[in-house]
């Protein structure tokens, strides 16, 4: 039996592969990546795999039984790219696909939800057995802004008092490895999020506590926050998207208290304190 992981050299994919190597023999794992030469450090077979090149994907999936389809990073192109992979999987005889979707994709106001729902629909229509991992927010999505907040003296956003149940990227990677290596998870949909929630005010307080500096949280209108992001060099599309995701967070779209993630990995999810500590050393 072979297990393949798409995007295996990405931030999530690398972590998944490392987890899988603890559960499955390395010769049963395949890294599906755009540039196989850059995947040598993974220590497993690597095959060229480009979501956009539909005509060669089936060949790359030859002999693969289980496929972890990590969602593409190209927002706006995901639905088509994922469809290409699913069609190729059908041709190649892949027996099971595990897909990384979005927390509460069927009710979320996040602009990302549509493409994830389209992919979930394509999986249902494919006839291939599948499992949906509806991943919540990575804590790193926010802790990545700590350095900037320390520099400017404030943490800014548009999430208001929204509850955010994020978890570390490593937590989600471990869950993906647990699921793809155990067929008892076939047919299930998991809503995955951190054990505890926080607001951005809480995050600012934690940054203040650990840094010894007073870092308040400044809540801004979505358009004003987007403008700040553009002023520091983010592309217009991306800045607008990030600000809109914060607005969705203000509606508790990033909140979930089912603790399905910690149940899957058999331990508590990484705390906000530890995630902040990893940045402020």
Would you kindly provide a written description of the structure presented here, covering whatever features stand out?
This is SDR family oxidoreductase. It comes from Draconibacterium aestuarii. The strands form two sheets. A seven-stranded parallel β-sheet has the order 3-2-1-4-5-6-8, with helices on both faces. The longest helix has 15 residues, at 78-92. The protein has 281 residues and is of the alpha/beta class. The protein folds into two domains: 3-135, 3-Layer(aba) Sandwich (Rossmann fold); 139-166 and 195-256 and 268-281, UDP-galactose 4-epimerase, domain 1 (Alpha-Beta Complex). It is 43% helix and 15% strand. The chain is built from twelve helices and nine strands.
Layout: helices, strands, pairs:
Blueprint: E1 3-6, H1 11-20, E2 29-33, E3 45-48, H2 54-60, E4 66-69, H3 78-92, E5 96-102, H4 113-126, E6 129-135, H5 140-143, H6 146-152, E7 155-157, H7 169-180, E8 189-192, H8 200-211, E9 217-219, H9 222-231, H10 236-250, H11 260-265, H12 272-279
Parallel strand pairs: 1-2, 1-4, 2-3, 4-5, 5-6, 6-8, 7-9
Helix pairs in contact: 1-7, 2-3, 3-4, 8-12, 9-10
Quick take:
This protein is α/β, with parallel strands linked by helices and 281 residues long.
């Amino acid at each position: 039996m072979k297990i393949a992981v798409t995007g295996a050299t990405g931030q999530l994919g690398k972590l998944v592969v490392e987890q899988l190597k603890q559960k499955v023999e390395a010769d049963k794992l395949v890294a599906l990546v755009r540039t196989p030469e850059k995947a040598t450090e993974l220590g497993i077979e690597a095959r060229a795999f480009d979501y956009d090149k539909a005509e060669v994907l089936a060949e790359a999936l030859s002999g693969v039984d289980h496929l972890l389809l990590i969602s593409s990073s190209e927002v706006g192109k995901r639905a088509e790219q994922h469809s290409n992979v699913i069609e190729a999987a059908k041709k190649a005889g892949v027996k099971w696909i595990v897909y990384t979707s979005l927390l509460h994709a069927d009710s979320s106001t996040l602009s990302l939800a549509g493409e994830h729902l389209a992919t979930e629909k394509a999986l249902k229509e494919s006839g291939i057995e599948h499992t949906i991992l509806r991943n919540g927010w990575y804590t790193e999505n926010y802790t990545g802004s700590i350095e900037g907040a320390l520099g400017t003296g404030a943490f800014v956003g548009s999430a208001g008092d929204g509850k955010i149940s994020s978890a570390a990227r490593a937590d989600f990677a471990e869950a993906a490895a647990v699921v793809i290596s155990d067929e008892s998870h076939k047919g299930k949909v998991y809503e995955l999020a951190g054990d505890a929630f926080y607001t951005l005010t809480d995050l600012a307080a934690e940054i203040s506590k650990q840094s010894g500096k007073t870092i308040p949280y400044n809540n801004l209108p979505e358009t004003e926050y987007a403008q700040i992001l553009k002023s520091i060099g983010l592309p217009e599309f991306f800045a607008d998207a990030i600000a809109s995701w914060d607005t969705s967070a203000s509606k508790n779209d990033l909140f979930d208290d089912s603790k399905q993630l910690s149940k899957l990995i058999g331990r508590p999810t990484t705390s906000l304190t530890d995630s902040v500590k990893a940045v402020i050393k």
